[in-house]
Design brief:
heterodimer, A: alpha/beta, Rossmann fold, Alpha-Beta Plaits, 10 helices, 28% strand, elongated, B: alpha/beta, 6-stranded mixed sheet, 4-stranded antiparallel sheet, 9 helices, 37% helix, 27% strand, ABC_transporter-like_CS (chain A), ATP-binding (chain A)
């Protein structure tokens, strides 16, 4: 195990940020922490990168204890915080140079590792970091987190607020880094990114809802799931919410995802019910659950 | 220009030096429509939106919002629209009630109207227990629902939502969309930007901006058919990658 977390808890005054969290990340694994704002993801990252001490529990990174051996961890991990935290007044190149020097290395020595990413911002190497676009800042931050060739990479919401194209490029980069043997712990609020991880932990309100491979998590979805469509989305949602056999109703793109208390709905009766309320063009079809369906089902409890 | 459109833009352009951040965009938004305004970071969405809400003067082209001209009637535009963004929505140091009365006051509602609306809104959002608590301490999802309601306080014809659901959990995100549907159902026009492509599917029509231009504009269903894909995400990837 490259990262171990055992019964970690952390509170800020009266607010519990993490409640008895335990999990492990294998060497070379791409592990995702999936959850919304306020779930406790950043607190966990800060504990693992030795910037915060836990109230309870034990955690190790590369075999080092996060409290007693924090210096060893700081030398061997790369951390990209959620908030842009490079020096805004230094240029792109100065920032990268600074981080390389701090870790006793040079840009040249590890250029190979950052090359893929850095070439994209190299044309702007004399621009101050504060003047970069969001996407470029993200690439520079990743370059700085990688320049000392860390064994473990911590990425706290690297793709938040980033458009789908740049997000896809970013994940392609992560896969390449993983192929070079790096262990990666990444957090994201985007459920569709979960499928790109080897394993994920679904986290909400400081608790882990489930840990498994993305495939296993969706396979564990407890009920048959149906796509329902009709001519009026708002009316469809409100009508289904009032239906006596409804277990869950969530809009999902052009459909509503529906589960029934009885597991298998009476499609004819349901269709009649909706027609009776003035809906037309009704279709009801079975569909496969996504990570987001699983997350919502688990979070409901 | 026809008046059953709540937004009409013709060749709307914004130049910064010789860089066209928004390059001759033309589109119409119908009353009561949920209009998705998509694009990659840096495609020009924010710049376009700033012109539409009357805080940035276009370099050329024409546009009206709620019937008012974006060059000459920006104050009238501001009175007739609602606006909510993920970054700025409410004052953290004011209570729920204070935020509502503050915005009510800004939009020129009478004290009586503010009181009535405030009461109704707090009840609808189930915020009775925290109505005198500072907004800063509320969970993000509650803040966003409150911010949306506040943006609708003065019954605007159209409400602009700039990435309204960033970071919230999937259940809250859907509750938020139910509020959007409800508002649209009552006739309010919704103009929304988002990075969640499943939310693009919730829109009646979506436009996709690439490098300052609108490269596609249609219903999600027709866009998917046109680009021969099953999801808006793939439509977006195909377009934005060029």
């Amino acid at each position: 195990m490259e990262i171990t977390v055992a019964n970690i808890s952390k509170s800020y005054n009266t607010v519990t940020a993490l409640k008895d969290i335990s999990f492990g990340v294998e060497t070379g694994e791409l592990f995702g922490l999936i959850g919304p704002d306020g779930a406790g993801k950043t607190t966990l990252f800060r504990i693992l990168t030795t910037l915060l001490t836990p109230d309870n529990g034990v955690a190790t990174v590369s075999g080092f204890d996060v409290v007693t051996n924090y210096k060893a961890i700081r030398n061997s991990v790369g951390y990209m915080p959620g908030r842009f935290s490079l020096y805004q007044d230094l240029t792109v190149e100065e920032n990268l140079n600074f981080f390389a020097t701090i870790f006793g290395t040079t840009i040249d020595a590890n250029y190979d590792l950052v090359k893929d990413i850095y070439v994209q911002i190299e044309p702007f190497k004399n621009r101050r970091a504060g003047k970069l676009s969001g996407g470029m800042k993200q690439k520079l931050a990743l370059s700085c987190a990688l320049i000392h060739k860390p064994k473990v990479l911590f990425l706290d919401e690297p793709t938040t607020g980033v458009d789908p194209v740049s997000r896809k490029e970013f994940w392609d980069m992560l896969k390449r880094l993983q192929n070079k043997g790096m262990t990666i712990l990444v957090s994201t609020p985007y459920m569709d990114e979960a499928a790109l991880c080897d394993r994920i932990a679904l986290i909400q309100d400081g608790r882990i809802l489930e840990i498994n491979t993305p495939k296993a998590i969706t396979e564990h979805f407890p009920k048959p799931l149906y796509n329902i469509r009709a001519n009026n989305m708002y009316l469809l949602i409100t009508s289904l919410q009032k239906y006596q056999h409804t277990h869950s109703v969530f809009p999902f793109g052009e459909y509503v995802h529906y589960t029934d208390k009885r597991n298998t709905p009476d499609k004819t009766a349901l269709s009649q019910y909706l027609k009776h309320l003035g809906l037309t063009e009704i279709t009801i079809e079975k569909t496969k659950p996504t990570i987001e369906d699983s997350f919502m089902e688990l979070a409901k409890k | 220009m026809k008046t059953d459109y709540v937004i009409q833009a013709e060749n709307l352009t914004k130049l910064f030096g010789d860089f066209a951040a928004v390059n001759r965009i033309s589109f119409h938004v119908k009353a009561g429509e949920i209009f998705g305004f998509l694009g990659a970071n840096g495609a020009g969405k924010t710049t376009a939106m700033k012109m539409l809400i009357g805080i940035s003067t276009p370099s050329s082209g024409r546009a009206t919002v709620a019937g008012f001209d974006v060059y000459k009637e920006t104050e009238a535009i501001k009175k007739n629209i609602g606006y909510m963004s993920q970054k700025f929505a409410l004052y953290d140091d004011l209570t729920v009630k204070e935020n509502i009365s503050f915005y009510g006051g800004i939009y020129g509602l009478s004290k009586k109207a503010v009181k009535e609306k405030s009461h109704k809104l707090i009840e609808e959002l189930n915020l009775q227990a925290v109505s005198n608590s500072l907004v800063g301490g509320l969970p993000l999802g509650w803040k966003q629902k409150l911010a949306f309601s506040v943006a609708l306080l003065h019954d605007p014809k159209i409400v602009f939502l700039d990435e309204p659901t960033g970071g919230v959990d999937p259940i809250t995100r859907r509750q938020f969309w139910e509020m959007i549907y409800k508002a649209a159902h009552k006739g309010t026009t919704i103009f929304v930007t988002t990075h969640y492509m499943d939310e693009a599917e919730y829109c009646d029509r979506v436009s996709i901006m690439v490098n300052g231009k609108i490269e596609a504009l249609d219903t999600p269903k027709r866009l998917k058919a046109h680009y021969k894909t099953d999801t808006m995400n793939e439509v977006f990837l195909k377009l934005a990658r060029g």
